[in-house]
Amino acid sequence: MTSLKAGDAAPSFSGLDQDGNQISLSDYAGKKLVLYFYPKDNTPGCTAESCNLRDNYSKLQKEGYNVLGVSADSAKKHQNFINKFDLPFPLLADTDLEVIKAYGVWGPKKFMGRVFDGIHRTTFLIDESGKIEEVIQKVTTKDHAAQILGS
Question: Which CATH number characterizes residue 102's domain?
C-alpha cells in the first residue's frame, strides 16, 4: 500500500500521545524506532500485535529500538488500551490522519465483503539518521517482534 521503501527518509511527524505529550520524529534522532501503524485499539489483531511488542519490549530495547504505535483512536482510548494491557510504550493519537496519510497507510480495505477506507497494518523500522531501514507490510500480529528482530 505505502510507496515508502527502505532508504527513503522517514516523513517528519508531530502529534499527541495518550497523555497529551507532543511526540515528533525528531525526538528519536540518534535512536532506532519501530513505528507501527494499526487499525484500532482493543480489537483482536491489534491487541495481539501490541501485546507481542510489549512482551518483547526488553529485547527490542536491547537492540536499540524505541517503539511508537499509531492509530486514529483518541488519546483517551489509547490511555485505556495502555492501562488494560500494561503497554510500556507511547501511542500516538492521529485522529486527523495526518501521520497515517504521510506514511501512506490509509486506503481502501475489504472486510466481510465490504470495502471501506482504513489503516493498513504496517510497521516502519527507522534508523538513527531518520532513514527507513525496512517496511513490514505483512505483519504477523502474534509474533511481530520476531519479524522486527529477524529471528
Answer: 3.40.30.10
- pTM beyond 0.90: yes
Domain that holds residue 56: 14-149
Distance CA 127, CA 6 (A): 10
Q: Which of 46, 72, 99, 125 is catalytic?
A: 46
Q: What is the pLDDT of residues 8-17, one digit of tens each?
A: 999 999 999 9
Q: CA–CA separation, 136 vs 9, rounded Å?
A: 16
Whole-angstrom distance, CA of residue 85 vs CA of residue 44: 12
Q: Tell me which residue has cell 511488542.
A: 53
In the annotation, is 46 catalytic?
Answer: yes
